[in-house]
């Protein structure tokens, strides 16, 4: 279309639409083995050989998208996974270098510091999109943008999964020097908002009944009995806890909460498939419950938060 605008010296596109349509329908499609015009002609002919062609085409397309889906699921991050952050999402000067075609001048593309996935946010019910991630440092402070009070949401392509024991080779200052940055932005981290912290300090109350053993020693079944069906709020959205699971792997050994928005919790059941539901680190759920003054939060959870957060 840009060529047409230049050639006609006009931004009027409607009179040229038939030509644009013809050009698009004449372009060869490697996956389909023909142009759209050729494919539609064969589709309408209803010849036996053409019916066989479309059966094979349907199978190849199904296999293609099935492999894409499997690749997507393999690359999902889970709470507790360790990652590095793409510096282009954090530093304006690096983005400017890349946009100017000077990508080769960027020596270090990922943060030397290793961070941890705090939360995976799936698209809301009825919306199309990919999950977003909230990332925190080893002290449990989330990554945010300057002058923002809430966590930054990262795409999967912005995060590089690494092993939990991977160490920094250089510092962020060294990376800035190698990338030839002048007065670069820092990686901003924040704890909880001050106003919410002040509220949280008054929340813990004594537990009504004595506990059989410390919460820090609880296992999966005990956490499920303790929290299943409880509700909490995160960023203005109300969630219900469906269950607690223990994830064991190379990068994380910790408890995760399977949750769903209260709006999608009908008659005691989730209307959202498990694969589409967000997972929260258990300690993150407890922290949100404390900060939002949930009536089920008791002061014994404070020790549990610290113990869970200290796990891998």
Explain the overall architecture:
With 312 residues, this protein is an alpha+beta fold. The chain folds into three domains: 2-74, no CATH class; 82-190, no CATH class; 194-309, no CATH class. The chain is built from ten helices and twelve strands. It has helices at residues 2-8, 17-25, 36-45, 48-74, 92-99, 172-178, 194-201, 220-227, 282-291, 301-309; strands spanning 82-85, 115-121, 132-136, 142-143, 159-162, 189-190, 231-234, 237-248, 253-261, 265-266, 269-270, 279-281. The strands form four sheets. A four-stranded antiparallel β-sheet has the order 3-2-1-5, with no helix packed on it. A hairpin with a 4-residue loop joins β8 (237-248) and β9. α9 (282-291) packs across α10 (301-309). It is globular and about 75 Å long. It starts with a helix and ends with a helix. Mean pLDDT is 81; it is low at 193-206.
What descriptive keywords fit this protein?
10 helices; 3 domains; 4-stranded antiparallel β-sheet; alpha+beta; 312 residues
- Tally of DSSP β-strands: 12
Overall pLDDT: 81
The number of helical segments is 10
Task: Categorize the overall geometry.
Answer: globular
- Secondary-structure class: alpha+beta
Query: What string, H for helix and E for strand, traces the elements in order?
Result: HHHHEHEEEEHEHHEEEEEEHH
| Main sheet specs | 4 strands, antiparallel
Rg of Cα set: 26 Å
Strand line-up in the sheet with most strands: 3-2-1-5
* Percentage of residues in strands: 15-25%
């Amino acid at each position: 279309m840009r060529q047409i605008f230049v050639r006609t010296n006009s931004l009027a596109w409607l009179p040229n639409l038939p030509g644009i349509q013809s050009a698009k329908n004449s372009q060869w499609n490697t996956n389909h083995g023909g142009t759209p015009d050729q494919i539609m002609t064969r589709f309408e002919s209803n010849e036996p050989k053409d019916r066989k062609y479309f059966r094979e085409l349907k199978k190849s397309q199904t296999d293609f998208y099935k492999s894409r889906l499997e690749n997507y699921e393999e690359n999902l991050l889970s709470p507790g996974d360790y990652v590095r952050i793409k510096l282009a999402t954090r530093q304006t000067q690096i983005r400017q270098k890349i946009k100017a075609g000077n990508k080769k001048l960027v020596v270090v593309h990922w943060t030397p510091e290793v961070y941890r996935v705090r939360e995976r946010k799936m698209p809301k019910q009825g919306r199309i999109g990919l999950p977003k991630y909230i990332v925190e440092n080893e002290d449990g402070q989330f990554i945010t943008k300057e002058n923002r009070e809430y966590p930054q949401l990262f795409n999967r392509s912005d995060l590089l999964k690494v092993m939990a024991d991977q160490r920094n080779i250089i510092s962020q200052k060294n990376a800035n020097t190698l990338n030839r940055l002048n007065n670069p932005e820092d990686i901003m981290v924040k704890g909880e908002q001050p106003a919410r912290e002040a509220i949280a300090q008054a929340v813990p109350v004594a537990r009504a009944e004595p506990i059989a053993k410390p919460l820090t020693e609880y296992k999966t079944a005990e956490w499920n009995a303790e929290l299943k069906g409880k509700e909490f709020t995160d960023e203005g959205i109300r969630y219900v806890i469906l269950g607690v699971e223990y994830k064991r792997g190379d990068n994380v050994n910790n408890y995760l909460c399977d949750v769903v928005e209260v709006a999608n919790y009908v008659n005691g059941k989730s209307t959202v498939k498990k694969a589409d539901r967000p997972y929260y680190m258990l300690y993150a759920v407890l922290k949100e419950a404390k900060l939002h003054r949930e009536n089920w939060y008791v002061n014994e959870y404070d020790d549990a938060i610290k113990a869970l957060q200290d796990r891998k």
